[in-house]
Automatic annotation (TrEMBL), chain A:
GO BP terms in the entry: protein neddylation
GO molecular function list: NEDD8 activating enzyme activity
Annotated Gene3D superfamilies: NAD(P)-binding Rossmann-like Domain
Domain THIF-type NAD/FAD binding fold: residue ranges: 7-165
Pfam families documented for this protein: ThiF
Keyword Ligase appears in the UniProt entry: no
Keywords: Ubl conjugation pathway
Pathway: Protein modification; protein neddylation
Protein family membership: Belongs to the ubiquitin-activating E1 family. ULA1 subfamily.
Gene Ontology terms: cellular component: cytoplasm
Protein name, entry field: NEDD8-activating enzyme E1 regulatory subunit
TrEMBL record, chain B:
Cited SUPFAM superfamilies: Activating enzymes of the ubiquitin-like proteins (SSF69572)
Keyword field contains rRNA-binding: no
Sequence similarity: Belongs to the ubiquitin-activating E1 family.
Domain named THIF-type NAD/FAD binding fold: residues: 4-366
Name of the protein: Ubiquitin-activating enzyme E1-like
GO cellular component: a single term: SUMO activating enzyme complex
PANTHER family tied to this protein: SUMO-ACTIVATING ENZYME SUBUNIT 2, UBIQUITIN-ACTIVATING ENZYME E1
Length: 333, 625
């Protein structure tokens, strides 16, 4: 509970599951430079699980001028040890340790060091020979590598990562109405409304979805062969809807006109999603496959079977101009 | 060089901590930091100069001590105080070479900006929210605009609309009835039926009354009144209790409660708050037999909302959600209500570090170029945005700062510091001082003196001239504005005098009289900046609008200034004139569209009856007869 208050401001960004991933992370820094220490500070504060600093140097006068995490009294002490102590002071939840090894030779000299023990390697001030070997090592076991260097006012940052999958549910900017393939209850619902209703009160309460669908159906009757509506046709419909407004304040017709362009699109699986579903990794599922690919495979199976070629429907309907009874009826369709 | 540089950091929070670190690492050795806040547990995820043992202590003081430890040569002076406190007056601000904002609210930002304008200090403004942030450098430029600046464009007269006598009387009677009902309700605070009574009043009775106003619902969805469930007092299964103790972040806090749960939290939290209120006001034992409070209890102070107070958050969440249900609005989880009601902005160390890094880079640049020149807006003034948008290829974007506009109500104002002895200086003294600087003021003869929205003097109202500043309620950190009746609004170039009260320490009145009661600290501030002057002369040269006398005066002054001090190089002058002509031509093109028209009725001057004016933010009509 104490922890959730401490992390409140960041939980609002990455939520509990993001925090859980952070807390499971063990991050290794090669060389306790100022840049490396600053990077670790920004990771220790939000609460990674653990960090390791590989460093064999002693704190020098020059370190104290640019690295906030060593002080003058640390001069002559092992640098990695000093930084670990200062960083641990920032967050008691985080454990930190120091490996007294030269990062340049650790791959050869320390058989207990393995990049696969870490969730992320951050390398600063390493030679290119070392980086090439390190990068190959990381690539082999699938551990991400971040390389950063700074010199005066310039800096450099490079990331090597194999695959990073995230499962996050969110709702897109527009809802999914599928007016081109209305489900039976919606078709039935829409038939209850008359766009020529003489009662102007009722006319002003017709939900825009109904207006759009009726116009769409009329278009379909006139163009039974057309695969989809062209932009020009949509603009004609938008024009017609605007003309059908009985007075300038009929918000429901205004909403319908405003939403013509996207709501009458042909329902399809967005290309980036299709790309994922068609990825061969969906076919090569093993018990070690990441959840992401298992989920993608399940989604593909749904699309091919129950979904009739379409993605599952979120069912979300945002607010619109109509009376409560109609709105609730739409929501419960 | 850096040893003499004195910087002010306003705020020792997320950006402030990072910035203080960067400043001492960059060799700034004289740093003053102001923050009125104390350290809270929720700060520790990013404000790395603070530790658990510092909770409850002053942010400014702990941060100052922490960075001092890093570099004992750095002089870091903390102030555990509000930057808007009068003790931080214009003279105090003038001591700094550079002001760095690391604030979290608009009011203080406006205030600091204003003092930077008045005292001519360069300001670096910044802010972050989640993964995004920005830094802007303002060198003697304008920012935000000021609420209640007394400008003719922004001040509106407070008017009360009354719709006939009888309606008014009924309205008053209704208000009285409402006040009585609320008072009676509050007296029942400690009774078992309190929650039910409040519920019935707010979610049933009041909603029914609203529903009775048919007009209101012609075009919107009607609310549905809600009645308190019958039966025994609901006490068990309080979902808020699951999440309590750690604030609104537990599991139950992330879930939206159903209606029954919400009502239970409502009843429970209102009882908790009522007990606390009674305790706070020392009325734990009701003195009347039926459990009602004595009336005296109600005059005592109430409690104010604190998002970290679980009782209050429960109450606000439940009440807001019940009202949402009544109005068919989707209810929210306690976690989200806390963010909305508490105005919580997500914050992480990384974003603050990036932004503070950019501030420090810019501060270094400014230090290298000697903090700019008061008469120039360096071309480097810019805003840098840190964006989080996966569709964009970059994280950082720059944007040049717009130049001041002569038609902007805030830009065209001039600022100066006026030191006054409020007990001796009269408004007449001020008028005399203003008349002395008439040439620079370019405001003509018919001056108007204003403070906030009130007129202190105009040519037909001289009653206040013998009254002192103290009599008029004017003192430190207030502004007296000088405008004119003589000019047309687009060309008025008002002056704001920021007051600094000089405390008279001299023991005898004789000595006192030796000192002038009013001192204009820096008369050169009455001159307008070259950028705006050039824009004004472009206006004056516009072929389609015959120049107003004020315009001509301004243009002449601008030219004089340009000739004498700004650009001695003849080619530069020629270039500037070329540019001016281009601007005038462009203006006359845009004017021919006739989109913006101001009607000027000016019987006195027999001026043109109608003229096309440059685009302004608001249209105005002057009736002057």
């Amino acid at each position: 509970m104490d922890k959730t208050r401490r992390y409140d401001r960041q939980l609002r960004l990455w939520k509990a599951h993001g925090q859980a991933r952070l807390e499971a992370a063990h991050i290794c820094l090669l060389n306790g430079t100022a840049t490396g220490s600053e990077t670790l500070k920004n990771l220790v504060l939000p609460g990674i699980g653990a960090f390791t600093i590989v460093d064999h140097r002693l704190v020098a006068e020059t370190d104290t001028g640019c690295n906030f995490f060593v002080t003058k009294s640390d001069i002559g002490q092992p640098r990695g040890k000093a930084i670990v102590e200062h960083l641990k002071g920032l967050n008691e939840e985080v454990s930190g340790r120091w490996v007294n090894q030269n990062p340049e030779t650790i791959l050869d000299k320390d058989s207990s060091f393995s990049v696969s023990d870490y969730s992320l390697i951050i390398a600063t001030q390493c030679s290119s020979e070392m980086l090439i070997r390190l990068a190959a090592n990381c690539q082999e076991v699938g551990v991400p590598l971040v390389v950063c260097e700074t010199a005066g006012f310039i800096g450099y940052l490079r990331i090597q990562i194999q695959e990073h999958t995230i499962i996050e549910s969110y709702s897109g900017p527009n809802e999914d109405l599928r007016l081109d393939r209305p489900f039976p209850t919606l078709t039935e619902f829409v038939q209850k409304f008359d766009l020529n209703d003489p009662d102007s009160m009722a006319h002003g309460q017709i939900p825009y979805i109904v207006i759009l669908l009726q116009y769409y159906q009329a278009w379909q009757r006139n163009n039974p062969e057309a695969p989809s509506m062209t932009l020009k046709e949509k603009k004609v419909i938008r024009e017609a809807i605007t003309r059908a407004m009985r007075h300038p304040d009929e918000e429901n017709f205004e909403e319908a006109a405003k939403n013509v362009l996207w709501a009458l699109n042909t329902t399809q699986i967005p290309p980036p999603v299709r790309e994922i579903l068609e990825n061969p990794r969906c076919d090569q599922l093993t018990e070690n496959s990441p959840d992401f690919w298992v989920l993608a495979r399940a989604m593909r199976d749904f699309v091919q079977q129950e979904g009739d070629g379409m993605l599952p429907l979120s069912g979300h309907v945002s607010d619109m101009k109509t009376d409560t009874a109609n709105f609730v009826a739409i929501q419960s369709l | 060089m850096s040893a003499e540089t004195r910087v002010l950091v306003v705020g020792a929070g997320g950006i402030g901590c990072e910035l203080l670190k960067n400043l001492v690492l960059s060799g700034f050795l004289d740093i003053h930091v102001v923050d009125l806040d104390t350290i809270d547990l929720s700060n520790l995820n990013r404000q790395f100069l603070f530790q658990r043992c510092h909770i409850g202590q002053s942010k400014a003081q702990v941060a100052a001590a922490a960075v001092r430890r890093f570099n004992p040569n750095a002089r870091v002076t903390p102030y555990h105080d509000n930057i808007m406190h009068p003790k931080f007056d214009a003279r105090w601000f003038a001591r700094f070479d550079l002001v760095l904002n690391a604030l979290d609210n608009l009011e203080a930002r406006r205030y600091v900006n204003r003092l930077c304008l008045v005292t001519n200090r360069p300001l670096l403004e910044s802010g972050t929210a989640g993964y995004q942030g920005q830094v802007t450098d303002y060198l003697f430029s304008q920012l935000f605009g000021f609420a209640g600046d007394g400008d003719e464009d922004s001040t509106t007269t407070m008017t009360q609309t009354t719709e006939g006598g009888s309606d008014n009387a009924e309205e008053i009677r209704n208000l009285q009835l409402e006040a009585t009902a609320l008072k009676r309700l509050r007296l029942h605070m400690l009774k078992d039926t309190f929650a039910r009574e409040v519920f019935q009043k707010v979610f049933d009775h009041d909603i029914r009354r609203l529903l009775s106003m048919e007009d209101m619902w012609a075009t919107r969805t009607k609310p549905t009144p809600m009645t308190f469930p019958t039966g025994t007092a609901p006490a068990t299964g309080d979902p808020a209790a699951e999440g309590r103790g750690g604030g609104a972040t537990g599991l139950a806090a992330q879930r939206v409660w159903d209606q029954a749960e919400t009502i239970r939290v409502f009843s429970d939290s209102i009882a908790r708050l009522a007990r606390r209120f009674a305790k706070l006001t020392g009325r734990l034992d009701p003195t009347t037999d039926d459990g009602t409070l004595p009336e005296a209890a109600l005059s005592e102070t109430g409690m104010s909302f604190d998002k970290d107070d679980p009782d209050m958050l429960d109450f606000v969440t439940a009440t807001a959600n019940l009202r949402s249900l009544v109005f068919h609005i989707a209810p929210q989880s306690q976690f989200d209500v806390k963010a909305m009601a508490g105005n919580i902005i997500p914050a992480i160390a990384t974003t603050n570090a990036v932004i503070a890094g950019l501030i420090a880079l810019q501060a270094n640049t400014l230090r290298r170029c000697g903090f700019g020149n008061a008469n120039h807006l360096p071309p480097s003034c810019q805003t840098t945005y840190l964006v989080q948008d996966t569709t964009r290829p970059r994280l950082l974007y720059n944007e040049k700062l717009a130049a001041p506009s002569p038609t902007c109500a805030t830009c065209r104002r001039r600022y100066a510091v006026l030191e006054v002895d409020p007990t001796r200086a009269t408004l007449g003294d001020f008028l005399k001082l203003a008349q002395k600087y008439a040439t620079q003021l370019l405001l003509g003869d018919d001056l108007i003196i204003e403070e906030g929205g009130r007129i202190l003097y105009d040519p037909d109202f001289d009653d206040n001239l013998d009254r002192t500043f103290a009599d008029l309620g004017l003192g430190t950190n207030q502004t007296v504005s000088l405008t004119s009746e003589d000019t047309l609004p687009p060309y008025i170039w008002p002056v704001s005098f920021w007051l600094v009260a000089t405390t008279t320490t001299t023991p005898t009145p004789e000595d006192n009289d030796q000192l002038p009661p009013l001192v204009l600290t820096d008369p050169s501030r009455l001159e307008m900046s070259p950028g705006v002057a050039a824009a004004h002369s472009a206006l004056a040269n516009s072929p389609e609008s015959p120049p107003h006398p004020t315009q001509l005066a301004i243009a002449a002054a601008a030219k004089r200034k340009a000739d004498t001090e700004l650009v001695p190089d003849q080619t530069k002058i020629a270039k500037a004139q070329e540019k001016e002509e281009e601007a005038a031509a462009a203006r006359s093109r845009s004017l021919s569209t006739g989109d913006f028209r101001t009607i000027v009725l000016d019987a006195d001057r027999n001026a043109e009856k109608s003229r096309v004016t440059p685009p302004l933010t608001d249209e105005f009509i002057i009736l002057d007869d």
